[in-house]
Amino acid sequence: MDLNIIWEDFFNRTKPAPEVINIEKKIMAGIPFVYVLVVPNTSLDATTDILKKHAVKSMKGKRLTLEINFVRSEENLFVFRMRFLVPQEKMFCCGNLCFDCIRLRNN
């Protein structure tokens, strides 16, 4: 799964939000950080809700989960550590009769 498409869709959905002035992603040490500049007096909770709402829309129909953690803020700039996580799939049979065993797949 190409996560760049998910990120692009997420930013395209988030940028037009009336509370968001600017949003960008920076990769540091392999970890994506999202910098969100919002209109003054926008709370942390409101900003987090905006990000979650648009992330859920971008993930719809895909097997992804969202990890979002607040890092820091300066005036009306909020920084979050944010990742779209792809679930791991089993690659071999472990012999424990798992419900999602590789042996039970059709392909």
Explain what you see:
Strands 1-2-4-3 form a four-stranded antiparallel sheet. The protein is of the alpha+beta class and 107 residues long. It is 26% helix and 34% strand. Helix 1 packs across helix 2. It starts with a helix and ends in a 22-residue tail after the last strand. Strand 3 and strand 4 form a beta hairpin. The protein has one domain. It is elongated, with a radius of gyration of 18 Å. The model has no long low-confidence stretch (mean pLDDT 90). The chain contains two helices and four strands.
How do the SSEs run, as a string of H and E? Answer: HEEHEE
Q: What count of domains describes the coordinates?
A: 1
The 3D shape can be described as: elongated
Report, as a whole number of angstroms, the end-to-end distance.
Answer: 18 Å
> Structural class given helices, strands, pairing?
alpha+beta
How much helical structure, as a percent, in the residues? 25-40%
